[in-house]
Amino acid sequence: MRPMLLAAALFATPALAQSNPQIDYPGFQALTAAVAPERAQRLLAFDAFRAEAAKPGVLLLDARSRDAFAAGHIAGAVNLPLTDFTADSLAALIGPDPNRPILIYCNNNFANDRPPVPVKAAPLALNIQTFINLVGYGYSNVRELADVVDFDDPKVGWVKG
After folding, report:
1. What digits encode the pLDDT tens for the residues 31-79?
2. How far apart are CA 49 and CA 54, in angstroms?
3. Backbone angles phi, psi at 61, to 5 degrees
4. Taking the CB of residue 136, how many other CB atoms lie within 10 A of it?
5. What is the rounded CA–CA span in Å between residue 154 and residue 152?
6. 8-state DSSP, 24
7. Where does residue 125 rank: exposed (0-12), middle (13-18), buried (19+ CB within 10 A)?
8. Most buried pick, 28, 81, 131, 137, via CB within 10 A?
9. How many other C-beta atoms are found inside a 10 Å radius of the C-beta of residue 70?
10. Would you list the DSSP string of 112-132?
């Protein structure tokens, strides 16, 4: 058996999956399944995304690393790396209204495939985890950039670090 398949088989064992009460993979699977239809309805074409981002009170969230954000991002975006998502950090950033409109984008929304936005494996695109995490933390008014754009296009409003 190849090492990757062996590791997958070992970690798929229910006893191992449930050994840490602070990790709930079945809960993650259920959340992912529940979020899928909602996410499909919340994808925005670039022009609609830009129009929404210009509205008062809308949060444009970049969940990439601090270094990637500092190297470049869409103008008006704020940064909270996905690795730093907690109930408290999200509440501090988003504010008291759990229905606040939140827009997200990630590396895989850019055609450039170079720093600071190298393309990631499609099933691992940061938008997926960001969307699931935001909904999981109680923020359901999330919309996601659906298109692939060129960050060198002035319409994108890219800010270089």
Report:
1. 999 999 999 999 999 999 999 999 999 999 999 999 999 999 999 999 9
2. 9
3. -105, 125
4. 15
5. 6
6. -
7. middle
8. 131
9. 13
10. --STT-PPPPGGG-HHHHHHH
